[in-house]
């Protein structure tokens, strides 16, 4: 079992309509980019988790790039006054000793590290 975890970055400062519409659009990007057989769901408020079968590290990085590219295109075409962005944390779940929850937590930690780096690059407080 392989998975990526995705979190939207910076949504909480905007009105509820933007959250709902943004989440719908992000879910659409995930559906369009994740391979058939993937399971994607909203998780923990403003996060999404995708469990994607049969990915090696190269395919995983390509999927991350495809998602980021699709989000950038979505953002540039959107009517929102703010960018649609995401921080991604991913893991290859290849050790049966760890549970699905363990892998989700590990991907979540990686995602928060990425999110912190994105905020630091923008000059925001993490």
UniProtKB/TrEMBL annotation:
<dbReference type="InterPro" id="IPR043128">
    <property type="entry name" value="Rev_trsase/Diguanyl_cyclase"/>
</dbReference>
<dbReference type="GO" id="GO:0052621">
    <property type="term" value="F:diguanylate cyclase activity"/>
</dbReference>
<keyword id="KW-0808">Transferase</keyword>
<dbReference type="InterPro" id="IPR050469">
    <property type="entry name" value="Diguanylate_Cyclase"/>
</dbReference>
<dbReference type="InterPro" id="IPR029787">
    <property type="entry name" value="Nucleotide_cyclase"/>
</dbReference>
<feature type="domain" description="GGDEF">
    <location>
        <begin position="1"/>
        <end position="126"/>
    </location>
</feature>
<protein>
    <submittedName>
        <fullName>Diguanylate cyclase</fullName>
        <ecNumber>2.7.7.65</ecNumber>
    </submittedName>
</protein>
<dbReference type="InterPro" id="IPR000160">
    <property type="entry name" value="GGDEF_dom"/>
</dbReference>
<keyword id="KW-0548">Nucleotidyltransferase</keyword>
<dbReference type="Pfam" id="PF00990">
    <property type="entry name" value="GGDEF"/>
</dbReference>
């Amino acid at each position: 079992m392989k998975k990526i975890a995705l979190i939207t970055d910076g949504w909480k400062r905007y009105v509820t309509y933007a959250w709902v519409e943004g989440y719908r659009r992000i879910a659409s990007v995930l559906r369009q980019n994740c391979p058939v057989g993937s399971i994607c769901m909203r998780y923990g408020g403003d996060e999404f988790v995708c469990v994607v079968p049969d990915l090696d590290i190269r395919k995983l990085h390509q999927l991350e790039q495809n998602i980021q590219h699709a989000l950038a295109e979505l953002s540039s075409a959107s009517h929102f006054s703010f960018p649609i962005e995401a921080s991604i944390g991913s893991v290859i779940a290849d050790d049966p000793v760890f549970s699905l929850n363990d892998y989700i937590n590990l991907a979540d930690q990686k995602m928060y590290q990425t999110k912190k780096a994105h905020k630091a690059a923008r000059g925001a407080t993490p």
